[in-house]
Amino acid sequence: MDQTTLQKIKAELLKEQDKLKTQLAQFSAKNPHNPDDYNAVFPQFGEKEEDNATEVAQYSDNLTLERTLEAALRDVKKALINIEKGTYGTCRYCKKEIDRRRLLARPTSSSCIDCKKQLTQ
């Protein structure tokens, strides 16, 4: 892969990393013992019974969102590490080069289209 494309992808990944961290910070706190882990904060809406129900529902939604955003952040970090190691763009299954168009469309891809199709069948 040419350096211009690689730098473009790296810039996108860094931007996405910042976005994900910002989104996580809106409803969670970083785990002081694990910098890659976030913990959803239990919301406080009031002391009324309906407030408590809303808090529980919101917390449940936040836990699901936290897991989704953490997984996306892990994928971004893995891609950035692979760029630094010089292994970015190589399929983790067949070890062939991942098509440039796939990486531009989904920079966190770790598998080529053929392997992905086989895995999802």
Strand content: 5-15%
Instruction: Tell how many strands the DSSP assignment holds.
Output: 2
- Number of helical stretches of at least 4 residues: 4
**In order across it, which strands form the biggest sheet?**
1-2
Report the helical percentage. Answer: 55-70%
Flag low-confidence runs. Answer: none
Helix-strand string: HEEHHH
In whole angstroms, the N-to-C terminal distance is 29 Å
Rounded Rg: 18 Å
Biggest sheet, open or closed, and with what strands and sense?
2 strands, antiparallel
Number of structural domains: 1
User: What does the overall shape look like?
Assistant: elongated
The secondary structure category is mainly alpha
Mean pLDDT level: 94
General description of the model:
- This protein is mainly α and 121 residues long.
- It has one domain (3-88).
- The protein has 4 helices and 2 strands; from the N terminus they run αββααα.
- It has a two-stranded antiparallel sheet.
- It is elongated, with a radius of gyration of 18 Å.
- The mean pLDDT is 94.
Which SSEs are present, and which pair or pack?
Blueprint: H1 3-25, E1 28-31, E2 34-40, H2 49-85, H3 100-105, H4 113-120
Antiparallel strand pairs: 1-2
Helix pairs in contact: 1-2
Q: What's the gist of this structure?
A:
The chain is built from four helices and two strands, in the order αββααα.
Keywords:
2 strands, elongated, two-stranded antiparallel sheet, 121 residues, single chain, mainly alpha
